[in-house]
Amino acid sequence: MIPARYSASRFPGKLMQDLNGKTVIRRTYEATVATNLFNDVFVVTDSNIIYNEIVNNGGKAIMSKKEHDCGSDRIAEAVESLDIDVVINVQGDEPFTDKESLRKLIQVFKSDTDKAIDLASLMVHITNEDEISNPNTVKVVVDQSGFALYFSRSPIPYPRDKHVDVKYYKHKGVYAFRKEAILDFYKFPMKMLEASEKLEQLRYLEYGKRIKMVETDVEGVEIDTPEDLERAKKLWK
């Protein structure tokens, strides 16, 4: 599932911007389909413009029935009546969808015979100080088994002791959910941590869901600003 809304505070209409001959959302959809990892791929949107862009170019899309504050809510509504066990959330502004990273997420659930894992998501090791301190870069810390302890826009852990060899990880907003987990999310009200940081993944942690983090070295380009789009155009070439 690729949640896609037309409005965006930092870059309105970004998913319909041209990326070397095709729109950003179409590039993302086609890249996801091309992985051949999924039984089906849909764009889930509240926008007729995005819906028509996908359907008129041979793709599959679902119109949201309600207004939603986040992608997880949008996906939950779409999958509620579908006969599925695991759903992958690929962000609509990530046209450089990486097959190997998605395969790792799927493998988490294939190996989880006890069904102890509710979600899986991706993280990338980062070293750039500006990126570590940038609130638009979401950081994650994990336990010894690779389960998420916390996500934050702040640098975590805080480097009080400069001599400690700390690794910082950037969270990539690609999720794999058990259907039950995302439907629970849809029912749960937002709590303090999510409201404060404006990070929907914190709702899962606040309600005791377990998020298995998977490291990848493929960062790609998330298109949040016009500058990101220019970088993406150069990278696409």
What does this structure look like?
It is built from nine helices and eleven strands. With 237 residues, the protein is α/β, with parallel strands linked by helices. The strands form three sheets. Strands 6, 7, 8, 9, 10 and 11 form a six-stranded mixed sheet that branches. Strands 1-4-5 form a three-stranded parallel sheet, sandwiched between helices. The chain has a two-stranded antiparallel sheet with strand order 2-3. Helix 3 (71-79) packs across helix 6 (179-187).
Strand count:
11
For the record, give the distance between the C-alpha atoms at the N and C termini, rounded to a whole number.
27 Å
Low-confidence stretches are none
Q: Beta fraction of the residues?
A: 15-25%
The largest sheet is: 6 strands, mixed
Number of helices: 9
Structural class: alpha/beta
The overall pLDDT, averaged over residues, is 92
Can you give the helix content as a percent range?
A: 25-40%
The radius of gyration over CA amounts to: 17 Å
Q: Judging from the principal axes of the Cα atoms, what is the shape?
A: globular
Order of helices and strands: EEEHEHEHEHEHEEEHHHEH
